[in-house]
C-alpha cells in the first residue's frame, strides 16, 4: 500500500495549479472537497510513488482568543486586571465553516507520511499554514514549497527544490515568528489600550484603539483641522495668449522663474497696462522625453484608478477583483502589493495577449502578438507573495467569460486588460519646449508639449489626459530674437487653497507610504473607520461625497489617545522591529517583551492620572458667552464651540480650532479674541504649513455670517 503525501495549499485555485504542475494521476475530488490522486515524490535520490491529497485552507482558519475566551473574568472591564495576556498556545476557528474546513485538513494531515507546506510565500502565508500545522500537531519534518507564481514552470521548479535544510528552516522560522509577533501584538495593544484609555480617560465611552486605525483617524483629523485653520491669501497674476500663426499661453514670471504674484488686482492691472503688444523671444529650450507604459497594477493602484474614474470604494474594487479571480477565473490573485512580474511568466504571457484579440482590444492585442514585454517589468526579487495583476486565460478562453461580466466588473477588468496590453507596446515620446519672452521689461514663460510618437497612449486615447496646464501642440520653429504678438492679456484673481480632504485614492496612497495595512487589508481598515461601534454615538470618520471627514465623536476619541500611539512614527517603529524579527535580528520573545514593557509603563502613568483625566474629559465645561447667539462656549477637545454648534450646520455656527499653525490657543487667548477681537501681544512660534518656518504674529478674529475667521497681524 502506497504511503500518503499531503500538500497544504492556501487556496483552492492554488491546489488545482499544484495538481496540474506536478502531474497528479487519477485526479479527483474526495468527499471533503479536496483533490487527490497518485504522484511521484523524490526523497533524496529515491523516487517513491505516493497517494497525494492536496488540501486548502482558503486563507486564515484560526484566530487568537478574545479576552473573555481566555478567562470569563475579563468580561468585566477593570483596570486592575490589565494587561490581558495573549499568546497562540490556544487558537480558535474563525467561524463554523472554517472549523469544518480545519477538521477535514487535520484529518488528512493526521494520516500523512509526508507533508508539504505550500502556502503563500510571505509572512502572512507562513503564519496561516504554521498555525494549522500547529493545531494538527504536525510541526516537524515539513517540506516547504516556495513560489510566488502559479505557472506550471514555477511550481515544477519549486516542487523539485523543496525547502527542508537548516538554512531554509531558519529563514522560515523567522518569517513565522514575525507573522506571529504581528498577530499577537495587534491583539495585545488593541484590547489592552482600548480598555486602558476607556477606563482612564472617558466616562462610559468605549475607545476602540487599533494600531492602524487610530493613526489613520488621527491623520484625517489633522488634515481636516489644517483645512479649517487655513487662512486664504488672495493674489493676482497675469495670463497672456501669444503667437503669430499658432497661439499659446504664457504667464508673467519673477526673476526666479516662478509665476509673478501680485497682492491685489490693482497692482496687477498697473503692470498689465505697461505691457506692449509684442514680446521678444529671449530663450527657447527643447527637451525630448519618454513615457513608458505603467507597471502592472497592484491592488492599491487599481483601487485608486477605480476611485478616480468611477468613484468606487476600495472594498468595492477589491470585491470585484476577487470575483474576477474566484468566480470568473480570468484574473491573477488580486490581493497583491507587487507591481512586477516573475520571469517564469514570459512565455505564458504571449498566449495571454493572443487571448485578448476580441472587441475593443483586438486592434492593439493583435499587433502585440509578435512582441515581448520588456525585461524591466520582470523582477523576481520584488515579488514576495504574488506578482502584479494580469489577465488569466481559463478553459474556453477569456472572451466567453468577458461577455458575462456586469458593467462594474467590465470597468475594472477593462483597466487591467489595457494596462496589460500596454506593456507590449512602444513607449510614448514627446518634445517639451519652454519659451521665455520679454515685454516692457517683464518676462513671460510658456510651456508647450508635442507628442512625436503616441505609442502605448493610443490605447488610452478615450481616457482623460492630465496636461499640467501645458499646451499640447506643435509650434513649428521659434527662434531667439524673434518678435511674437501678444494677442490677449488678462489679470486673473485667485487665492491660495488648502489641501483637499482625503479621498479613497489619497487615503490609499497615504496608507501605502506609511505602511498602514497591506493590499489585503487596507480596504477593510478604511471601511471600519466609517462604521459605528457598539454603543458609541457615531463612527470616527464619515464619507461626505468623495471625501473622508472626521466626526465630532472621532475628534473627541482622538483627543484621549496618547500622542505616541497615534503617530506615524509609532507605526514605522513597529514595522522596523517586525522586519528585524523577520531578518533574525530580533527574537519573538524580545519583541513582545518590549511591547509589554511599554504598555505597563503607560498603565502606571495613566492609572495614576485617572481622576484628573476623567475630569478633563467632561467636555461640555462652560467657558464664555458665544459672540453670535449668547449661549455658552464649551471646550470640545479639538476646539472651542458654541454649546448649540452642530457639525451639520443646523445649530449656531461659531467655533474656533484649538490649534492654529501649530500653536494651541489657551482659554486666555480665547477670551482676548472675544473681548478685543485681537490678541494684545504677539504669539510666538506659529509654523508655516508651506515652508515649515516659524514666525510671530497677533491674531485677529472676524465673525462673518456667524462663522469665525482668523487672520494674522504682523508687527512692523
From TrEMBL:
<dbReference type="InterPro" id="IPR013826">
    <property type="entry name" value="Topo_IA_cen_sub3"/>
</dbReference>
<dbReference type="InterPro" id="IPR003602">
    <property type="entry name" value="Topo_IA_DNA-bd_dom"/>
</dbReference>
<dbReference type="InterPro" id="IPR013825">
    <property type="entry name" value="Topo_IA_cen_sub2"/>
</dbReference>
<protein>
    <recommendedName>
        <fullName>DNA topoisomerase</fullName>
        <ecNumber>5.6.2.1</ecNumber>
    </recommendedName>
</protein>
<dbReference type="InterPro" id="IPR013497">
    <property type="entry name" value="Topo_IA_cen"/>
</dbReference>
<keyword id="KW-0238">DNA-binding</keyword>
<dbReference type="GO" id="GO:0003917">
    <property type="term" value="F:DNA topoisomerase type I (single strand cut, ATP-independent) activity"/>
</dbReference>
<dbReference type="InterPro" id="IPR006171">
    <property type="entry name" value="TOPRIM_dom"/>
</dbReference>
<dbReference type="GO" id="GO:0003677">
    <property type="term" value="F:DNA binding"/>
</dbReference>
<dbReference type="GO" id="GO:0043597">
    <property type="term" value="C:cytoplasmic replication fork"/>
</dbReference>
<dbReference type="InterPro" id="IPR013824">
    <property type="entry name" value="Topo_IA_cen_sub1"/>
</dbReference>
<keyword id="KW-0413">Isomerase</keyword>
<dbReference type="Pfam" id="PF01131">
    <property type="entry name" value="Topoisom_bac"/>
</dbReference>
<dbReference type="InterPro" id="IPR003601">
    <property type="entry name" value="Topo_IA_2"/>
</dbReference>
<dbReference type="InterPro" id="IPR000380">
    <property type="entry name" value="Topo_IA"/>
</dbReference>
<comment type="similarity">
    <text>Belongs to the type IA topoisomerase family.</text>
</comment>
<keyword id="KW-0799">Topoisomerase</keyword>
<feature type="domain" description="Topo IA-type catalytic">
    <location>
        <begin position="172"/>
        <end position="604"/>
    </location>
</feature>
<dbReference type="GO" id="GO:0006310">
    <property type="term" value="P:DNA recombination"/>
</dbReference>
<dbReference type="InterPro" id="IPR025589">
    <property type="entry name" value="Toprim_C_rpt"/>
</dbReference>
<dbReference type="InterPro" id="IPR023406">
    <property type="entry name" value="Topo_IA_AS"/>
</dbReference>
<dbReference type="GO" id="GO:0006265">
    <property type="term" value="P:DNA topological change"/>
</dbReference>
<dbReference type="Pfam" id="PF01751">
    <property type="entry name" value="Toprim"/>
</dbReference>
<dbReference type="GO" id="GO:0006281">
    <property type="term" value="P:DNA repair"/>
</dbReference>
<dbReference type="Pfam" id="PF13342">
    <property type="entry name" value="Toprim_Crpt"/>
</dbReference>
<dbReference type="InterPro" id="IPR023405">
    <property type="entry name" value="Topo_IA_core_domain"/>
</dbReference>
